[in-house]
Amino acid sequence: MNIYLRELKANVKSLLIWSGAVVLFVLVGFSKFSAYEGNPELLAIFDSMPPALISAMELRAFNLTTVTGFLGLMFTYFSLMLAIAAGTWGADIIVKEERDRTVEFALTLPVTRARLITAKALAATTNSFILLLVTWASVLVGSMSYQTTPEFYQFLVYIMIALFILQLIFLSIGIFLGCAMKHYKKASSIMMFVLLQAYIVSMLAGLDQRLEFLRFITPFKYFNPARLLHESKFDPTSLLLAAAIIVVCLAGAYFTYQRRDLYL
Amino acid sequence: MNIIEVEQLTKFYGKARGIVDVSFSVGEGEIFGFIGPNGAGKSTTIRLFLSLIYPTTGKARIFGKDCIAFGPEIRQEIGYLPSEVFYYEGMKVIDLLKYSGSFYKKETTQRMYELAEIMELDLKRRIDDLSYGNKKKVGIVQGLLHQPRLIILDEPTSGLDPLMQQKFFNLIRDENKRGATVFFSSHILGEVQKMCSRVAVIKEGSIHKIEDIKTMRNEQYKKIMVSAQNVDQFALNLDGVTNVERDNGTVRFFFKGDINQITRIISAHNVTDLTIEEPTLEEIFIHYYE
Amino acid sequence: MKMNIFLHEIRRHKQSILTWSISLILLLFVFMAMFNSFASEAEVLNQTLAQMPKELLTAFGLDGVDMSTVLGFFSFVFLFCQICLAVQAASYGFGLVSVEETDLTADFLLAKPIGRGQILTSKFLAAFTGLTLTNAVVWIGSFVVIELFRDSRPYETNTLLLLLISLFFLQLFFLSFAILLSLLMKRVRSVNTAAMALAFGMYALSAFGGMLGDETFDLLTPFKHFDPNTIISQQAYELPLVMISVVIILLSVAGSYWLYLKRDIHSVN
Description:
Distance between the termini of chain B: 36 Å
Oligomer: heterotrimer
CATH class of the largest domain in chain B: Alpha Beta
CATH architecture of the largest domain in chain B: 3-Layer(aba) Sandwich
Largest sheet of chain B: 6 strands, mixed
CATH topology of the largest domain in chain B: Rossmann fold
Low-confidence stretches of chain C: none
Strand content of chain B: 25-35%
Strand content of chain C: under 5%
Helix content of chain C: over 70%
């Protein structure tokens, strides 16, 4: 577990930067929210909107005038930030041995490659989790000056769970890419493409009913904040897909890394 | 003209010292040695010559021109062989050598092929696939293909097999005969001893000593080994005799002074074996490393 | 400018240019192919949108967007193109000079009879050429795809040109700003992470700022300086905002030269 601790220490700076970004984002967002809270004009409009419009604007029955509704809106941005952080951490933590030329040290130690991956994966997961907690905490702090309901806190919990699963998905993709790619530079470029593609497809899928099928290929669509809020339920298909991706990627990571030649 | 002139050259990395007030000069056609322990400032000095880093104070001139102000111009005639070579991914040896040659105004193709043949370098291979020693060979060819007036060597033979080392030194000697000046930084004192006419010793950022190799050795002691039956009875408690070691009918010692004193003692006895040697640079300099 | 470095750098970016170009063409094609079916529904949408207060529309970035028009619909995929090109430009920028230090080839290149300024210029021009090639692909792709799928609906060519020209500025912005940032860092550990952070960061600023209706955000991010919706609705650039981008580009380029010329390049050990 010394590998685990070492990796945690090595990534502190990155964790702090991302945490800072999240905190900044939350605080700025909530400070501006005051313009929306309880605005009666907005309320009236929401009541009168046709469903087609709501879906086009991804409102999905959110009441923007409440903190809860606002949170639902922030969900997209949180997903993006935490996904990028997790994905790049995952790839980076594996690839750094080859990139920083420490392969001849780290991989000739009396540990199996499997143990190395496990320790690193756990370290990256821990960091992602800490980032998640930071998000949670800053939302709690930011929402303090507004009227909150018990519904809000429950919604928050659901959102955090959803975000965590998203993190795990991209983390495992990152780890897989880091382990599988022979040329380490490819791992981070592919990760970049995956993230870009997932985001763009998720926006596409939201545009049109007929494109709904696209939501299966992009993790950003696995969690629908409106449903989480109103039905307090996770979509079982999505959960299955998430689990499948995580398991396949991690298995693939272990498998490929064990067999691969590690170059200098 | 002095090829290299260094005047009070100083480099601090923030608070950490690189080199302090270093001054020396190297004349044309010299093979100049530059030795010192790890962290003494050898690499710093070389990197200042090449304007990879910039001095805090002081100056360095090569071919009479300031290293920083005329950097690109003087580098037309400098060949740099670094201690560790790294090249771009995905390139073949020949591609890299051609790319290297394209920076110089001179025609370099013919010399490139000649050098590659001397160093037994396979031009068609990918650099990524080469062993460390073979990469060093690429470094050697790359550094010499433009027939530079000044050759800067930094631990040039690490990684080369003994035969290749020989070839390399012959190559350097040939370049020197052709008129090139050589600045040779190394840990391997035996090499420096073989090749250089003058040596500077740098320690903890400052020049300790600059001397002719010959003078250094002459001023020093001789290593003497005598084997005889009654060697234990040799009266060796003279001034100038040091480090006496007796071992099974043999005595070894260092002697500095009038050699006749020793020969008189030895000729007074029946001796089975006698060796008188000059000490190696290692033996002279090892205390600088301590 | 040294031709040999220029060519070497272009070769280095070869595969990346190809991948981005192909991805962008696919994106344009797939998206615009849906236009027709979408356009008819969109007309209904527009009537409702017309009745809504401006603040709400701005909050959702729908101010001035008309999805039933060719360009209105196009603006959606165009935004994605902007994001992709921003990531590409930022990754070329972050890697431009830092790659020599990360891959330890600095001892080779910088010991050559060439000045730092020449190196930077050659690399910059090569990166920009690569970006322009991708840009050209987007230009051609956009025209082709719009022609293919517009189904005889009209569109203003001039506005389209304005949109496409904005890509040029956007790429310059991300390229030069990333180079500057890379020179402020001691080491760029991962070029792609930094590129994504910069590009998505700027995008998030614009999307978020739009949502909050706060004008200050507009000043900070090039995605707002070249906001597709604004360009379409006003059929022109918002010159003051464009000037901000231009100024940042100029400052970044100047700053980069200054920083690179005086940078200490340290050895391996």
